[in-house]
Amino acid sequence: MSKTTNITIKDVAQSAGCGVATASRVLNNSGPASADVRERVERAARELGFSFSAIGRALQSRRSMTVGCLVPSLANPVFAEAVQGVQAVLLGSGYQMLISCSNYDAAADDAAIEMLLAKKTDALVTTMVDPDRSPALRLAKKRGIPISLMFHDPLDGFITSYVDNFEAAKEVARQFAGLGHRRTGFLALRFSTSDRSRNRYAGFHSECRTRGLPDPVLIEIGEAEANQPDLLAAILAQHPALTAIFASNDFLAIAVQKAARLLGWRVPQDLSVVGFDGIEIGRLLEKPLATIETSPEAMGRQAASSLLTMLQGGDTVQLPALPFAFRAGATLALPNPENGDDGRGATRPSPDLPAEPHAQQG
Q1: Which of 62, 92, 115 is where one domain is finished?
Q2: What's residue 51's pLDDT?
Q3: Taking the complete model, does pTM exceed 0.90, yes or no?
Q4: CA 166 – CA 205 distance, rounded (Å)
């Protein structure tokens, strides 16, 4: 085949004797491939004259060469790392990224997608409050815009890059049970509008029942309680029997530790705390945080690789969940046998405490 500017990734895959998704992973350096397959794909690309920049030049008249990236917040390092993963894969592809943040607001999600569509973006990678109910996302799909979701559990009709929240949360229940905790709680922010939080609770609840533990207490809080330790402390004081709390993300787990100190509770002697995400700051605390560790950067890479495959005309299939691991930290220990239902004297939180940094959602 002669070198032309209309060579596609399908041609490269066919010449290399592999699937389009495999060729995309090799050319984007965004996933595993054997040395033999990698050599075949790279040789085929050279011989055919394929390059993403050449494709970009060929499509300039029909495409904006932009990818819209919508996340709830860049203040949360989980989403910032995912965006970096997207950017790493797009680098050198000829595509530029437009970033928008919604601050965990469904209406802002739709407004952002409408803006990105108005700017003729060629593809979307998104993390949203409720993608299944988003009219703007349905409009983008109807227009044939390639879409890749991040962090959400698989949703019919969409390619999703994710960690299995249900299975990961079961591991937290196993850790609690293994140490002898029976009176546990799940702390969630905006529980009703976060599929991630709901699935984490469902997995935690399921494994507690499997192990014969009482159902975990669901503690739902708002922005004010998440951001003000004295308010959160007042809520925790209503649950003095709990010996362990699973927070739906690491920032909430850190907030729990601050609130516990106001109550005179020691972590982990009086209250074990486990988070979710594995943000780096959790390692740097005086007591490193026990948490479910994930790789948001790998999630972003996987999502962007799927988009490039779709943009080059390749078919995509739902990939398996990305791996997770439990990080023990120093906030998880055996329950204190002296702590009965009334074994901890909860002090009244002071209303005059200085403001604390804002908690972030996951």
Answers
A1: 62
A2: 66
A3: no
A4: 10
